[in-house]
Amino acid sequence: MMNYNGIEKQNSNFKDVLKPLMRISGVKNCIIATMDGMPVGEIDQEGMIISATSAAVLGAITEMVRNINFGIAEKLIVETDFGKIIIEEVGNNHAIVVLTDDNVNIGMIRLTLKKAVKNLQGMIQPAANG
Fold it and tell me: Cβ(98)–Cβ(79) under 8 Å?
C-alpha cells in the first residue's frame, strides 16, 4: 500500500504528464480518468462528470467497434459548437480526456497526446505489474 507522500508524488507525476497538453493554445482542460469513471489526481465536480461520462462513452464505442469487427478504437474525437472533446484510452484501465476550444490546432493535440499516452503508460505499467 502506498503512503500519503507516495500518493502526493504520484498525483504530481500525473499532472506532469498533462502539462504539455495544457500549454497548447485552446486547451481548456485535460484529465486522466480510470475506466471505472474516476478522475486520477485532483478531484473536483467537473473532473468527476468528465471521468464518469468519458469512461461510459469510450466503453460503448469500444464495444460497438468490436461488435462490428471494425478494428480497435484508438481515439474518440467529439466536435461540438463550443469545441472538441478528445478521449484516448491508455492501457486497459485509464484514459486521457482533453477539452478544447473550437479553433484549436488538432494536429498539435494529437501529437502531444500521443506523447502523453506513452508517458502515462510508462507510469501505470510498473504499477500494474508490481
Answer: no
Give dist(CA 102, CA 26) in Å, integer.
8
Would you give the DSSP letter of residue 41? Answer: S
DSSP 95: E
Q: pLDDT by residue (tens digit) across 40-81?
A: 887 788 889 999 999 999 999 999 999 999 999 889 999 999
Backbone angles phi, psi at 74, to 5 degrees: -105, -40
Calculate the CA dihedral of residues 45, 24, 33, 1 and round it to 10 degrees: -100
What are the beta bridge partners of residue 34? 94
State the first-to-last Cα distance of the chain, in angstroms, to the nearest integer.
11
Q: What is the pLDDT of residue 13?
A: 82
pLDDT on residue 15 = 85
Neighbour order of strands in the sheet with 94-101? 39-40, 27-34, 94-101, 83-90, 75-79
Task: For residues 98 and 19, give the distance between their C-alpha atoms in angstroms, rounded to a whole number.
Answer: 12
Cell numbers for 65: 467497434
**What integer pLDDT is reported at residue 10 of this predicted model?**
61
8 A C-beta contact, residue 73 and residue 62: yes
